[in-house]
């Protein structure tokens, strides 16, 4: 029978295979369709069409939705819906028509068309999925099949990845699988973690009949078993628990000869506590167990779909038992010959599929590559407004990265704490340098993992220059800090210029040194010490000083030094007759002190027990005003040669009880023209102008002889 090639013959109303696009119902006529569906994969539909329109432009179709449907029974159709992502113009065909090919994918495919560098903080995988789908204008996923939703991950980086790659990686990490459900005009994403999430198929029981030519049956059904290891293990390092790496081992539910001897170990597991390690090990074991038993088959059953369950049965062998399976991948091949012939059997349909026992979750392997960052990156230290230094208890800091673009808040609220490498770290000892807000730091990554940054150093830039101008000060090695929220700095500088070598230390406020045992200091030339206010020295036992030359100790204002220096010049030049002949000159030199307001200038010396002072040649002491000596017990003065004592104004001596004066040869008192003299021979002479004795009672004189002349 000839085919009707008029316009009436180029319609789809009664066709088993149909396509509908934004161009209209019958503008495109579907002839051949290849469809691939799978769990945890994007479906892809290739449709060969022809059209009376020979001038279809790609912008009329690409980016729009299309519906493909297949008749499964009289009045019932199976739909596929998706986004046209590819369009190919084919050659003209017979009867004035042109061929085209369309590629249809899910809206989720759009996530593969945007890549980013982005930090995700404290979000679960399901929350990330919802956010990304919303940003791309896609309806939220159905998540009823997720049992025990995954926990939030504190810090996760999308690094030069498409949104799809990042989302897929997160789904795999949490053991979540997905597939699509199709309706006329839309398709829906389903996410699940448990077999509860599988859906019942339109045909619960499907006949298996090998070699049959019936329309709706399974023609090939083969169980495929694989050897799988008996254990899955993993571990990771948690610096907060340095006793050892965190790890977990999960045995397989599949028991095979000797498979318990084989273990798949993975490090790092990216799990920081025991619960997370147990979960990670369990999920990876589930993915391995899903590889143990699979079904590979072929059929003409048009209702089989990824994520839907079915149960085979045999009519010829009713005693053969089959369990329930879920389709994990299927390829549909459809060819419609009805535009070329009106004979029966104008449509060819077949499929090949892979299935899994529906009692097992289709837990995915972690197959999406983890991005790596090789080498180091720059970052800027971040922190709250008004702060300069913002660490946590471990000295970790927060940063923002240039690749965050306008998302970076720069206050540390949108990033994690990052460890800072130090030159030394021990139990309460080591080095401690905290990078400050605004500094540029170098960041590297453990295992190259963007989720695990470590700060390895600080680099200067025009905003954070080095302490001394370069290259003028190229011989200086400097460690200078900056006063927190104030002006000033502490500094340690080494100058290595030949002939100018120096170690410079600057303390903005206090400088404290603690020596547990002994301290030695050697100065080969001069030492100068200047103290602005007070100085205290405390010696627990002995104090010993040896001075090879002279020692000058001044207490009081600097003007005192001038007077003392002048007096000492007189003492040195006239030491021999100082008190007898040069006292007046000394008084002239010191006269200016009487008009001077001295202010502070006191010196107090306290000795707990004994004090001994030895001067090998001579000792001079000048007291500008008064001097008081108080002796609690005895007082002894011994002079080896001559003792001279001069009092300018007056002298007063008071003895509470007895006083004895012993003179070896002669004792003499002179006052003007009066003289009293005693010698060792017993002679006593009193000489003067007049002598007056006033005695109220009596005078006794006892002598062998007395001369009155």
Automatic annotation (TrEMBL):
Q: Which GO terms describe its cellular component?
A: extracellular region
Keywords for the protein's UniProt record, in alphabetical order: Secreted
Residue stretches making up the Gp5/Type VI secretion system Vgr protein OB-fold domain: 390-458
Give compartment(s). Secreted
Domain named Gp5/Type VI secretion system Vgr C-terminal trimerisation is located at: 477-558
Keyword Secreted on this protein? yes
Asked if the keyword Secreted belongs to this entry, the reply reads yes
A Pfam family of this chain: Phage_GPD
| SUPFAM superfamilies assigned | gp5 N-terminal domain-like, Phage fibre proteins, Phage tail proteins
Q: Which PANTHER family match?
A: PROTEIN RHSA-RELATED, PTHR32305
The text of the family note is: Belongs to the VgrG protein family.
- Report what the protein is called: Type VI secretion system secreted protein VgrG
The organism is Phyllobacterium myrsinacearum
The major lineage groups are:
Bacteria, Pseudomonadati, Pseudomonadota, Alphaproteobacteria, Hyphomicrobiales
């Amino acid at each position: 029978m000839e085919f009707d090639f008029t316009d009436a013959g180029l319609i789809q109303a009664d066709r088993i295979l149909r396509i509908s696009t934004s161009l209209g119902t019958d503008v495109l006529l579907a002839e051949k369709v290849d469809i691939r569906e799978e769990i945890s994969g994007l479906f892809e539909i290739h449709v060969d069409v022809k059209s009376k329109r020979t001038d279809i432009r790609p912008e009329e179709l690409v980016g729009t939705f299309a519906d493909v449907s297949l008749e499964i029974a009289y009045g019932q159709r199976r739909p596929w819906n998706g986004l046209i992502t590819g369009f190919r113009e084919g050659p003209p065909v017979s009867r004035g028509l042109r061929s085209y090919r369309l590629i249809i994918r899910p809206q989720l495919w759009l996530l593969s068309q945007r890549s980013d560098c982005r930090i995700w903080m404290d979000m679960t995988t399901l929350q990330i999925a919802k956010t990304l789908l919303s940003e791309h204008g896609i309806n939220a996923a159905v998540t009823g099949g997720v049992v025990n939703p995954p926990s939030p991950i504190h810090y996760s980086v999308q690094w030069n990845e498409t949104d799809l790659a990042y989302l897929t990686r997160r789904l795999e990490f949490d053991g979540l699988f997905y597939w699509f459900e199709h309706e006329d005009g839309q398709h829906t994403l389903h996410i699940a973690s448990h077999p509860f999430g599988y859906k019942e198929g339109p045909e619960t029981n499907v006949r298996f009949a090998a070699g049959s030519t019936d329309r709706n049956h399974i023609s090939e059904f083969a169980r495929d078993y694989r050897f799988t290891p008996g254990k899955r293990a993993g571990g990771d390092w948690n610096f907060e628990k340095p006793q050892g790496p965190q790890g977990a081992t999960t045995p397989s539910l599949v028991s095979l000869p000797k498979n318990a001897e084989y273990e798949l170990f993975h490090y790092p597991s990216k799990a920081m506590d025991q619960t997370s390690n147990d979960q990670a090990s369990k999920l990876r074991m589930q993915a391995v167990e899903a590889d143990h038993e699979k079904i590979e088959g072929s059929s003409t059953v048009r209702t089989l779909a990824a994520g839907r369950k079915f149960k085979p049965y045999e009519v010829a062998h009713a005693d053969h038992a089959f369990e329930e399976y879920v389709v994990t991948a299927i390829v549909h091949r459809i060819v419609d010959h009805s535009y070329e012939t009106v004979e029966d059997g104008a449509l060819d349909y077949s499929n090949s599929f892979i299935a899994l026992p529906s009692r097992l979750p289709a837990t995915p392997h972690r197959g999406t590559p983890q991005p790596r960052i090789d080498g180091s990156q720059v970052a800027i230290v971040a922190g709250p407004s008004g702060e300069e230094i913002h660490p946590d208890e471990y000295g970790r800091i927060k940063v923002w990265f240039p690749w965050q673009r306008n998302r970076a808040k720069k206050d540390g609220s949108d990033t994690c704490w990052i460890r800072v490498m130090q030159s030394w770290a021990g139990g309460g000892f080591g080095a401690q340098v905290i990078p400050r807000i605004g500094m540029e730091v170098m960041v590297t990554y453990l295992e190259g993992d963007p989720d695990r940054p470590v700060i390895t150093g600080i680099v200067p830039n025009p905003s954070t220059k080095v302490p001394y101008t370069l290259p003028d000060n190229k011989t200086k090695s400097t460690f200078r800090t900056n006063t927190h929220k104030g002006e000033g700095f502490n500094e340690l500088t080494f100058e290595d210029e030949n002939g100018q070598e120096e170690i410079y230390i600057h303390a903005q406020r206090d400088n404290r040194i603690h020596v547990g045992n002994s301290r030695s200091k050697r100065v080969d030339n001069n030492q100068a010490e200047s103290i602005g206010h007070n100085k205290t020295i405390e010696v627990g036992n002995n104090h010993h000083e040896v001075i090879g030359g002279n020692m000058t100790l001044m207490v009081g204002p600097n003007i005192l030094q001038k007077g003392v220096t002048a007096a000492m010049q007189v003492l040195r030049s006239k030491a021999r007759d100082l008190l007898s002949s040069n006292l007046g000159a000394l008084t002239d030199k010191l006269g200016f002190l009487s008009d001077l307001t001295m202010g502070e200038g006191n010196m107090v010396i306290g000795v707990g027990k004994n004090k001994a002072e030895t001067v090998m040649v001579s000792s001079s002491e000048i007291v500008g005003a008064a001097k008081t000596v108080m002796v609690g017990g005895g007082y002894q003065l011994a002079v080896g040669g001559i003792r001279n004592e001069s009092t300018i104004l007056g002298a007063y001596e008071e003895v509470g009880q007895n006083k004895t004066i012993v003179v070896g040869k002669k004792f003499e008192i002179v006052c003007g023209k009066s003289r009293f003299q005693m010698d060792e021979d017993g002679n006593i002479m009193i000489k003067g102008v007049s002598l007056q004795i006033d005695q109220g009672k009596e005078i006794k004189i006892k002598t062998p002889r007395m001369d009155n002349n």
